[in-house]
Amino acid sequence: MTTLRIKNGKVYDPINGIDGQVCDICIQDGKIVAEVPEGSPCLDASGMVVMPGGVDMHCHIAGHKVNLARKFLPEDHRRDVQPRVGSLRSGVGGVVPSTFTTGYRYATLGYTTAMEAAIPPLGARHALEELNDTPVIDKGFYLLLANNVCLNQLLAQGRMEEFREAVAWWLNATKAYAIKLVNPGGDEPWKGRRNANVHDLDEPISGFENVTPRKIIRALIEVSNELGLPHPAHIHCNNLGHSGNYQTTLETMKTAGDLRAHITHIQFHSYGGERGKNPTSAARQIVEYIDAHPNISADVGQVMFGKATLMTADAPLTWLLRNITQDKWVNADTECESGCGILPFSYQERVYTHALQWAIGLELFLLAKDPWRMVLSTDHPNGGSFQNYPRLIRLLMDKKFRDEQAKKANPKAIAQTSLLDIDREFSLYEIAIVTRAGPARLLGLRDKGHLGVGADADITIYDEQEDKEAMFNAARYVLKGGEFFIRDYEFCQDGEGRIFHVSPDYDPKIEQVLKPFFEEYYTVQFENYPVSAHYLAHGVRVPTFRQ
Amino acid sequence: MRLSLHTAPEVPLETDCLCPDQLLGKSAKEIAKLLVFHGNQRAELGEFFHIQEGAQNGTVTVEGDLAKVKQVGAGMSDGKLRIVGNVGAHLGAEMRGGEIVVEGSAGDWVGREMRGGRITILGDAGHLVGSAVRGAAVGMTGGEIFILGSAKNEVGNGMRRGLIAIAGDSGDFTGVNLKAGTVVVLGNLGLRSGAGMVRGTILSTQPAELLPTFCYDTTYRPPIVRTLLLYLRRQGFTIEDVYINGPYRRFSGDAIELNKGEILLYAG
User: Fold this and answer.
1) Is residue A16 part of a domain?
2) A95 belongs to a structural domain
3) Which residue is closest to B137 within chain A, CA to CA?
4) A74: which chain B residues are within 8 Å (Cβ-Cβ)?
5) Would A258 be classed as within a structural domain?
């Protein structure tokens, strides 16, 4: 039985309403408990801030698109080499770090959970292998289902029950955690016709009768709800990056009705203006809708100036951007399941669009009334690496710093937004919400994101400092599952995290429907397609609300 | 100062400390302690080199067959480095100033991403002279590389500024992805010269087979060629008068890019 008492620290635990009070946190066997026996080891956290471990609900850290990005950016890795130190393994950093380095660097920032946000079903094996190799942190992945030919066919034929069973089968077969929609319906026209995409939610999708993006969105939101998944449908809306796309985003949110839905990297979907012309900020319209609709949640997908790598299942978008950057890029498709595009990118302060994106992201954070439903992400590495989080936290907490940065950016863009008029500064309590409690709650991970009795003992302890960037840049102590991984800023052990997945119940008869499709169209035999349990070395099955 | 190789390394030895910036002003003892990598093992410079202190005239001489010694003069910014013998890959990589003279041949990646200074090689050079690293778009951005022998493939890959001159032949893809800058080859160009070039000049005194994306413009006697070749002659290149005076055929390309690059071929 291992026990520990953390005393004298200022605790920020929004789920339990603790806002900077000094209190003791007791740990026994990897869980938070009410009390530990007299004489248990003690950690004095005087002058320090104690928070639950960070939870990143949207990032790209595993799977074949991440690996492709690693492979085609050797010039980015060479200046950031992480040698083997002690028991830690070697790797490279840069915008898209290698697996080991990804785990260590998340932990260094005080993050203990991160969810890979887009894996095509055929890539599940690869993703799980890489997640197994991403040390320290707990993780899981979301399954791309919005451009799935087989599901679209069921939808076109109105076979909704089989649609639901098929989705449940797919989640089981891949050991995924949630349903992900990316540019719903857009891949099929892209694959079928030269440089085509869908731009309207009610535009029919070529090749399927009566299937529109709206139908796909509604169907997957409903299925998520019916299956009782801990995290609702995770939606990357249509028209990402296009001027005027906030209308599409509003329509997508309206499609959910009063069902739960999560809109991801919403910054990229909050642009006003006319299509094809310079964007303007529509952050206010988006925030107003979300404030008024508690069933909708979002993560921001903040853009940070500097290097980034775009990697998305939204293949037509990367083609568009490739024509601007004129640099190397990758475009791929995953059989009947998804598309994929990757290109290196750099957000520059002086560029109108980039400065606007940066400001819109901050507006979304600062205007949203409910931080529980507007949580922190940079859509790593699309808006910038997760290694930018400390700086982003400082931007939110420090009005003076934010205004200084805004003045360096393109003035026309900043003038388009209300950023300079916003005085709000996040408190540590609010930071704990957007980086920990909020994402954990949205993910339905009950033991994460808080320090109440029964929670996982994932704890980060920072030295309290005036400069919040410095403070959040390196945690002094990081405990994961009750064990020290970082002690006095140094790693003291290496370890593997767990992988969360769901396995909703389904009717095995659905296999008779799916099998003929596989035999006709897939390169993989139906029997070989499901991922077997031994790919989950440290798998944790999270029950659905119906289980 | 003089360093001579006493033990040939079995596997490549990485010695970015072999550079006047780091050596001058240090005692022989201090230099012997400098860190090098022998394969993946840490080692000290003294395990491979005898160090002889000499007059501090800003010159470091290194002797021996350094074919397996990599990163010599990497990052150098000042002084003179003289190498008597062959030298391995990444000679003068990311060099900013100073001069390197090799009295022998050099390996691949001579002057990779060089920013300034001069490298002169009396023998041959390997692949990727003055080029970018794999994955990066931009190679050499300044300085001069003179090769009195021949060079292999991808001379000046991604080069943006500076001058590369080769007395002998060059391999395939000479000036590939050239952004700007000048590559002079007095011998034969290999295949597919200037593929993907945006701007810049490739000059050869010998006939060459060009890609179909290069178009013939004109035959002329540009004064810059005369200036350039006379300059190279002063640097020790042997160039006949006909090439200095003679007419050149100009081809523009690469048409799949901006089409603002030029290849000049002697038309005598």
Assistant:
1) no
2) yes
3) A327
4) 133-135
5) yes
| Residue contact A78–B133, C-beta within 8 A | yes
In chain A, residues with a C-beta closer than 8 Å to the C-beta of B133 are 74-75, 78
Instruction: Tell me what ipTM this predicted complex has.
Output: 0.81
Closest to B118 in 3D by CA, of B164, B152, B84: B164
B267 touching A (Cβ < 8 Å): no
CA distances from B212 to A67, A229, B193, B248 (A): 36, 59, 11, 19
| Closest CA of chain B from A76, distance in Å | 8
Nearest by Cα to A408 from A371, A354, A455: A354
User: Which residues of chain A does B136 touch, with a Cβ-Cβ cutoff of 8 Å?
Assistant: 75
Examine residue A34 and state whether it is found in any structural domain, yes or no.
no
Q: Which domain holds residue A449?
A: 66-500
Distance from CA of A73 to the nearest CA of B (A): 6
Question: How many Cβ atoms sit within 10 Å of the Cβ of residue B115?
Answer: 17
Other C-beta atoms closer than 10 Å to the C-beta of B84 total: 17
Residue A104, domain CATH? 3.20.20
Instruction: Write out chain A's pLDDT in tens, 547 residues.
Output: 789 999 999 999 999 999 999 999 999 999 999 999 989 999 999 999 999 999 999 999 999 999 999 998 999 999 999 999 888 999 999 999 999 999 999 999 999 999 999 999 999 999 999 999 999 999 999 999 999 999 999 999 999 999 999 999 999 999 999 999 999 999 888 888 777 888 899 999 988 888 999 999 999 999 999 999 999 999 999 999 999 999 999 999 999 999 999 999 999 999 999 988 999 999 999 999 999 999 999 999 999 999 999 999 888 889 889 988 888 999 988 888 998 999 999 999 999 999 999 999 999 999 999 999 999 999 999 999 999 999 999 999 999 999 999 999 999 999 999 999 999 999 999 999 999 999 999 999 999 999 999 999 999 999 999 999 999 999 999 999 999 999 999 999 999 999 999 999 999 999 999 999 999 999 999 999 999 988 888 999 999 998 8
Query: Distance of CA B261 to CAs A534, B155, B201, B233, Å?
Result: 57, 16, 6, 25
Judge whether B134 is closer than 8 Å to chain A, CB to CB: yes
Cβ pair B74, B92 in contact under 8 A: yes
The whole model's pTM is what?
0.92
